[in-house]
Amino acid sequence: MEQQKRIGIIGGGLAGIFAARQLVTEGYAVEVIEKSQSVGGRMATRRIDQGTADHGAVFFTVRTDELAQEVDEWLEQGLIRKWFGDDFPRYIAVNGMNQLVQSIARGIPVHLNEQVERIVSDAPGLQTIASEETRTYDAILLTAPVPQAYDLLEASPLTLVESDHARLGKVTFEPTFVGLFEIQETLEIGEVGLLDEGLATGMLKIVNNAQKEVSATPLLSVYMAGDWSESWYDKGEDATLAEIERLLQEQLGPVTIISRQLKRWRYAQARDVFRTPYLKLDQHPLWLAGDAFLDPKDTSGRTRVESAVISGLRVAAAMDAHFKAVVTEQ
Ligand SMILES: Cc1cc2nc3c(=O)[nH]c(=O)nc-3n(C[C@H](O)[C@H](O)[C@H](O)COP(=O)(O)OP(=O)(O)OC[C@H]3O[C@@H](n4cnc5c(N)ncnc54)[C@H](O)[C@@H]3O)c2cc1C
């Protein structure tokens, strides 16, 4: 009997978790390795006192049948709800975006708080090396944001051919600062709790998590634009947070701020995307996927929740096809 193939997935964001779920269904022994203390990646939510604030993805939209099918099930299970928009609905997770990924990941083996530092060849398979763990797999799927994935590959004694370097080395992401403000007042921001027009230069979105019905207390998430975040990236957290607060007060008029926090995303959105839903390294059983790997039919041209989901599903199908073809050849 053919031995069950072992697949290691680096990164427990949407792409990693969707790929994992699919590969488990196909009968593979899958493990997700995640450096943070929970799965979700940029589907990120923070508890602040009695409140809850999303500080990564704000909402998601649906263009593909595959995600539409998931959405129907999530709506039925009460995991998500429509926030606003009739022709092109914006969906949100009921208890914060992170909770949705945690629900989908239930039952998938995940090693948390484990940052993979190197990947080494252990032909015909591969090993992941974190500071205290070495794990051996038949194949690896790497779903970190592309610049982080490329750094990891460069730090690893693997053979990357010129085309791998050329493709991966050119992709850059922009950073995003998000200021989180617990406020005294019960404030209404627009009809649904989202302000994304007529904002001061540098501000991208202001979200009221209470109006979004994610938070029991008034908590604002203030998303700064990529260019602004780039220019403030090295100015220090205190100065950056103070400037976001100044812009917020100017925008909304005086509000009483009870507490403030800053989230700095080094890799928030890709500036350049791939027009292929995954990549496989030429010389190793190692695939790359994630939100920057777009299906050629994706008309948005941007990294987003849906591009991560579709990339995860496509790469899982490709890995499965690869192993089935190997068995047929033998
Ligand atoms: C501020 C912000 C706002 C956004 N707003 C929206 C929005 O409104 N709508 C929308 O559709 N999209 C939005 N997005 C984009 C969306 O969140 C992402 O496209 C999607 O969540 C990416 O999923 P992913 O699996 O590709 O990557 P990630 O979620 O980044 O997952 C990668 C995972 O890999 C882990 N990792 C990295 N390196 C290692 C390592 N060496 N070892 C172990 N683990 C590792 C990371 O910790 C992370 O959990 C937003 C993103 C940000 C940052």
TrEMBL record:
Q: Which domain of life is it from?
A: Bacteria
Q: Name one Pfam family in it.
A: Amino_oxidase
InterPro entries (alphabetical): Amino_oxidase (IPR002937), FAD/NAD-bd_sf (IPR036188)
Q: Which intervals hold domain Amine oxidase? A: 92-319
PANTHER family reported for this sequence: FAD/NAD(P)-BINDING OXIDOREDUCTASE FAMILY PROTEIN, FAD_NAD(P)-BINDING OXIDOREDUCTASE FAMILY PROTEIN
Protein name, please?
Answer: Deoxyribodipyrimidine photolyase
